[in-house]
Amino acid sequence: MAKLNQNNKQEKTASHLPEHGPVDENGKEILLSLKNVDITFGKGENAVRAVKNASFDIYKGETFSLVGESGSGKTTIGRAVIRVNPCAAGEILYKGVRISGKIPHSLDREVIRNIQMVFQDPAASLNERATVEQIVSEGLYNFHLYENEADRVRKVENIIHEVGLLEEHLTRYPHEFSGGQRQRIGLARAMVMEPELVVADEPISALDVSIRAQVLNLLKKFQKEKDVTYLFIAHDLSIVRFISDRIGVIYKGTIVEVAQAEELFNFPLHPYTHSLISAIPIPDPKLEKNKILYTYDPSMHDYSTDKPELVCIGHEHYVYGNKKEIEEYKKIREKGEPIKSIQISDGTATQNTTVTKEQTLSKAEEEFLKAPLHDTGNAWYAVAAFFLPIIGLIIAQIFKHHRYYRNYKSLKKGGVIGLIVRLVIIVIFVLLLVLAVI
Q: 324-340 pLDDT, tens per residue?
C-alpha cells in the first residue's frame, strides 16, 4: 500500500515524462489511460455533462478508434487528451504520468511535443495567412527541433514529400489546395513533430471517397515507419473495422463497449453497438432496400436499482451494463456464435421485426424502381403528346410495354390533356355554329 501511495505521489508531481509507460498483465505498454473522466460544460443549472465516467487504455503502437453518433462526446475526449478541454473529474495519464489538470510547465511542453492532433476540417484548421512552409515549421520553431536553418528546411521538405506533396507547394497558401491536399498539410504539420500519439479527429469525413483511402494509407505508413499510436475518432464503422486494433463505442458521453475490432463486429453485445453496425450501408441496392435497421432504445434498460458499470466479460471485451445484463452478455459470448447484426428482410413481417412503410414497397413501386436508366419522364414527351395526342398515346403504350414507366406517364398525361383540349374546342365550335344558325 505504501508503494502504491508512493507511485500515486510520483504521478502527481512528475515534471517530465518517462521513456516508457507502465505495462499491463499481458505485457503491453500503456501509452494513454483515461480513468473515470468527466467533462462538463457550463456551470450550475446550465451545466452539461458531455462525458461521463469514461475509462479506457491505449497501448503503444496500436490504433484505438472511438466511434459513436454525432454529439456523443468523441471529439470532447480527443480535445481533453491534448489538454484543451479540462476534466471535471477523473484523470488522464500519459505513460503513467497525470497530464490532466494543473501540471508543471516543463511537462506541459513535453505533452504538446508528444501528442499531436489532426483536425476534422482541413480548411478551418490551417492559417489562411501563412504559407505551407510556415504552417509546417511552426512546431519546429516553438520547440527548436532543428540544429540550424538547413536542418529545418530539410525536415520540412522530407515530411512534405512523405505526405505526397512537392517542394513547390511550400510557398503557397492553404486556399490554393484541395481538401485532400489540405488534410495532407495538416498531417505533415503533426508528423514533423515526431509525436508518439496522434489524435485523429475524423480526418477523412470531409474528403471524397477516393481521397480517403490515400489519407488512411498515409496514416498506416507513418504508424509502421515511426511507431505512432493513434486515437482515431470516427463515425463510419465500415472504415474503422479495417484500420483499428481496438474499438471503443461511446453513447451520449458513456463508453458502452470496448473490444478488439473483429471481436466487436462478431459479438456486438451492447444494443447501441448492434444498432451502429446494422446501419452500415450494404453495397448492393437490392439488399440495402430490404435491410432491417435495428434502432437502439435506451429505455430498454432498467438502471433504477441495479446500477451499470463497464465490466470485462473475457476475451478483452468490456461491456457497459448492470449485473443482470452482464450475465446475459457473458452467456451470449461464451456460446461463441457470431451475432448477425445485419439482417435482410424477405418482404414478409416476422414476429421480431417491425416492418414500416419505408421498409416495404408495393409491387407497383418495385416495378417502378426497376425502370431502365433512360426512363426520365422528360417534360418534352408531354409537350409532344399534347400537340400529337394520338401518336403520343400509341408511343406511350410502347414505352409501357418496355417498362419505361416514367416516359409512359409523361406521354399519357400530355396526350390525354391534348385530347381534352381538342374536345373542348370542338364542343365550343359546335355551340357557336348552332347559335349562328339559330
A: 999 999 999 998 888 88
